Amino acid sequence: PLPPNATVLPHVSGGRNKNYESASAAVSVCRSEEMGRYAVAATDIKAGDTVVVEKAYCSVLLAEHRDTHCFHCFNRLVAVVPCPRCCNVAFCSAACQRVALSTHHGVECPVLEVLWESGASVTCLMALRILSQTNIRYFLDMRDQLQQ
Predict the structure, then answer these.
(1) H or E, element range at 101
(2) Residue 127 domain-assigned?
(3) How many C-beta neighbours within 10 Å does residue 100 have?
(4) Are 50 and 70 contained in the same domain?
(5) Which of 28, 70, 93, 97 is least crowded, fewest Cβ atoms below 10 Å from its Cβ?
(6) Which helix or strand (DSSP H or E) is residue 91 part of?
(7) CA gyration radius for the chain?
(8) Same domain, 129 and 67
(9) Are 72 and 83 in contact (CB under 8 A)?
(10) How many domains does the chain have?
(11) CA dist., res. 83 & res. 104, Å (int)
């Protein structure tokens, strides 16, 4: 298995786009009044070509995978390390458990089961994760901009 927080990302096909580091040179980003910003193929793109690769800003484990995957790093569980506060999630290592409890799961643990049972969308779960892991100072600093 991968060590916690290890990231294996594929490479984009056709080399990197000079304007968009995460995109392939096979993609061109355009703008128009009616459509806003959009991407088009700059060259022929074959089935299976990778055109954009970015590390996820936020990720969450869906309820249907809680018995098979680590709640923190998403690796498949071999030896389960349980959450000491709930029976909803498990971790693949003591390290993943420690990091999760000191960050996202420390906030989510008391409400996670209710969120899953409510049918909250993955978007809702990711919004909670982002909000709970962002320092309050960020939002206070943004207050004036958001009110404009």
Answers:
(1) helix 94-102
(2) yes
(3) 21
(4) no
(5) 28
(6) strand 90-91
(7) 19
(8) yes
(9) no
(10) 2
(11) 13
Is 2 domain-assigned? no
Residues 6+ apart with CB under 8 A from 122: 60, 62
Angstrom CA distances, 82 to 25, 94, 132, stand at 45, 9, 22
Phi and psi of 29, rounded to 5°?
Answer: -100, 125
Judgement on whether residues 17 and 49 belong to the same structural domain of the protein: yes
3-class SS of residue 24: strand
Six-digit token string for 66: 């809680």
Residues 42 and 137: beta-carbon distance below 8 Å: no
Rounded to whole angstroms, the Cα distance separating 95 from 83 reads 12
Residue that has been written with the tokens 């569980």 in this structure: 77
The domain boundary, picked from 18, 37, 55, lies at: 55
Whether residues 85 and 102 share a domain: the answer is: yes
pTM beyond cutoff 0.70 = yes
C-alpha pair distances (Å), 3 with each of 8, 9, 54, 62, 76: 11, 15, 19, 21, 12
Q: Which domain holds residue 95?
A: 63-147
Tens of pLDDT along 25-58? 999 999 999 999 999 999 999 999 999 999 888 9
Distance CA 84, CA 73 (A): 18
